[in-house]
Amino acid sequence: MAKTFDTPEREKESSVIKLLAIVGSQREYGNSFLLTKETLKPLKEINYEIIQLAKKEITFCNLCGKCESMECPLEDDFNEILKKLKEADGIIFAYPKYLFKAPTKLLCFLERLDLIHHFRKHPGYSEELRLEQNVSPPLEGKHCCLFVVTDPGENAEECLNLAANEVKSLGMKLILYNSQLGAHATGKFRGEVLRDQKGIEDCRKLVRKLIDSISSKI
Ligand SMILES: Cc1cc2nc3c(=O)[nH]c(=O)nc-3n(C[C@H](O)[C@H](O)[C@H](O)COP(=O)(O)O)c2cc1C
Question: Domains in the chain, please, with CATH?
Answer without folding.
Answer: 17-217 (3.40.50.360)
